[in-house]
What does this fold into?
Amino acid sequence: MMTSLRTRSRLPELWPRPATAGDSARYLALGGVCVALIGACGQASPAKPDPAAQVVRQYAVNLDANYKDALTQIGALKSAVDAFVGTPSADGLAACQQAWLSAHQWFGQSEYSRFYGGPIDQAQGGMNEWPIDEAFIDYTVGNPQEGIINDLTTYPLITQQVLASADEKGGLENLSTGFHAIEFLLWGQRADQTQGPGTRPYTDYVDGGTSANQDRRRTYLQVVTSMLLDDMRGLEAEWDLTSKTSYGSQLLAGSPEDGLTKMYRGFSQMAISELFYERMYDPIVSQDQKDEESCFSESTLGDLIANALGDEDVYLGRYQTLLGSTLQGPSISDLVRAKSPAQDAQVRQQLAAVRAAIEAIPPPFDHSVLASPTSPENMAVQAAVAAYQPVQATLDAVAKTLGIANNL
It folds into this structure.
């Protein structure tokens, strides 16, 4: 919050020291009038900070902190991958998997920054797109020669340029880069929906071990992880508020109403279009394991919790960092409460209920989705969907309260 420093004006000595008691009284009276006038009129009242501008600034501060934490975790993933590729082992593969899970969930908290043409929308195709056709990358059951890794004719070299140009080549699910390409390389294919996560052996990366082209698989894993790290560095740089040319700084320099509209659209679209419909409702309707986000690692429930937490944090103007400190400041909640305390209480209650309902789903998410409709697991999924039902109407009503042209 920006504050203005107010200074007291000093009355200049305009007259010589009076020689008589009468003169002294007269000058003192004049001086009193002047002091009173200067106190009343000489100082302009400082402009009050725009509440919307303060909310947008807190949003930018929190998002930059979240991106920094995600960058740290992706850096840890890169370190784990480099160590594993250097000396493949079961423990090394497990360390990579754990690093991926952590990095993906910290990134997931920031995905509310989509849907308004910001930096993440420019990089999203290379970072977190799904579903993914795993056969585009590597072997699958019954097809040992499939994928870029095993196609030495079309892809004699595996480089960043090659993988970037291959992305979505021949189909939207032909994704060659990003979190879920790495996920597949670490866990492998899930041939049976009723079983746990993929069981790729570490020997897929050992010369002379299982599955051919182990050297190319090692190269692919290293290259695609480096690409993800580069993308994350670019995102964080665009929200670095110490740079006057960053996207975040330009957002703060613009209209507070425009900034508020963008952040509200991102938060509300993430809640409804993405988290509710795309990530929860579609898998329930399709009953297809590939429609859950992190199907190879079976960590989709963690993704959903991270997304719900990120959305709730935007509304409340808060963020808890990787080191455990909490950033808290002006929020959308404050703006709504100033106009309608009852409406603000309703939003808070609904967002908290949604997150609690998602957290109550027994993992893994797809097993609960595929369970009998009368089972406790499936009923927990149904309860989460039911908790989401009133949210869209509420967020639309809040947009009207705030005068935002929401595009849900």
The first helix runs from residue 21 to 42. The CA atoms of residues 105 and 303 lie 6 Å apart.
